[in-house]
Design brief:
With about 180 residues, the protein is α/β, with parallel strands linked by helices. It has 6 helices and 5 strands, in the order E-H-E-H-H-E-H-E-H-E-H.
Amino acid sequence: MKKVLIVSSSLRGGSNSEILAHEAEKGAQDAGNEVEFINLKGKDIKFCIGCLACQKIHKCVQKDDVAELLGKVQNADVIVFATPIYYYEMSGQLKTFLDRCNPLYGQDNNFKDVYLITSAYDSSEKAADRAISGLKGWIECFEQSRFAGALVGGGIDEPKAALERDDLLKKAYELGKNI
């Protein structure tokens, strides 16, 4: 059994990336894993100010919801990030959260495998390339971790449209089940 953390970064109601993330959650649970689902919507997450105090004190000096989330990231065996694709890149919410994970740099973290689930209007498999590249850059900062895979949910735009894409729902479920 693995501790799986799923972090959804969409702020839109009926979010397609979140729908796919919930399918991955079901798959991971059905495989016998302990799964926690976090939505960044409604969380107070300030921008990193680049002070680097976190590298000395191993926590962020800013007072917001990130402190609570960092422990969850650090203690997960597997992390699945879910994001809509905006202008061929991950959402600003996810990027801001990844920046705020700086206190974890150089620490003893559990997470090994990191996955990405995306949704995009563009149906091209390349629609998420920059988001994948950005996440891989973050992962490279954590020696124990690796990019384990991505689900690129292309060709979906309207809220809840992913519910009608059995192919993507199945892929998301299988991603979770095979964690």
